[in-house]
Backbone:
């Protein structure tokens, strides 16, 4: 039975296709957590335009607010929600070149969000530095029955070459910071997250905020 088109958010029908707009419009959430629909190869690389990450409701850190003169009733701390590692993230390796070490060109070919089922379908064109092109198809959803569950599947096909493509799924990075350039408290950044790996395969890690001392366990299961 075909999907009801009135519940489909098609990228091709949008008047604006800027990457920062798309990763916001197609972000998934369930009230407990939210994941931005960003470039899945970006990770913590600063040479990309996107701002990937996962956010959990109520998981925040504190930063001290300083005043020229203190007055009764003024807040002493600001709260900023912690930006957690992107669960969509993966690494490609082609001809010995890894996407987390050298820049791969990633273009959004299509995105569609079924707002009845909550399923997000995305198609990316990924070009290696040696001009080898692969098509990456992703399907993902955030569960409402199990609020702490995010599911994503990947499908990869080479379009202009025959050869091996290595896919690495790991989350060794953290300590992403929210862009506070428009915030008057921009010079008072929140502290970085403390990270503890639960096993040697980096499939589970405990993240703790430095000042608010909140902890969160993130686990990945292939």
Residues:
């Amino acid at each position: 039975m075909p999907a009801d088109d009135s519940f489909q958010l098609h990228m091709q029908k949008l008047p604006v296709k800027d990457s920062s707009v798309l990763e916001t419009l197609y972000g998934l959430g369930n009230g407990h957590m939210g994941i931005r629909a960003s470039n899945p190869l970006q990770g913590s690389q600063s040479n990309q335009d996107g701002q990937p990450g996962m956010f959990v409701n109520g998981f925040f850190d504190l930063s001290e607010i300083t005043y020229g003169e203190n007055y009764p009733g003024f807040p002493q701390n600001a709260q900023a929600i912690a930006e957690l590692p992107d669960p969509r993230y993966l690494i490609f390796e082609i001809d010995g070149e890894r996407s987390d070490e050298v820049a791969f060109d990633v273009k959004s070919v299509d995105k569609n969000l079924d707002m009845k089922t909550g399923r997000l379908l995305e198609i990316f064109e990924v070009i290696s530095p040696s001009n080898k092109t692969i098509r990456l198809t992703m399907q993902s959803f955030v569960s409402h029955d199990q609020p702490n569950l995010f599911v994503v599947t990947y499908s990869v096909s080479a379009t202009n070459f025959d050869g091996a493509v290595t896919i690495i799924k790991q989350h060794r990075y953290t300590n992403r910071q929210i862009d506070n350039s428009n915030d008057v408290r921009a010079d008072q950044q929140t502290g970085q997250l403390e990270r503890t790996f639960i096993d040697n395969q980096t499939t589970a890690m405990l993240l703790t905020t430095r000042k608010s001392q909140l902890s969160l366990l993130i686990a990945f299961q292939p």
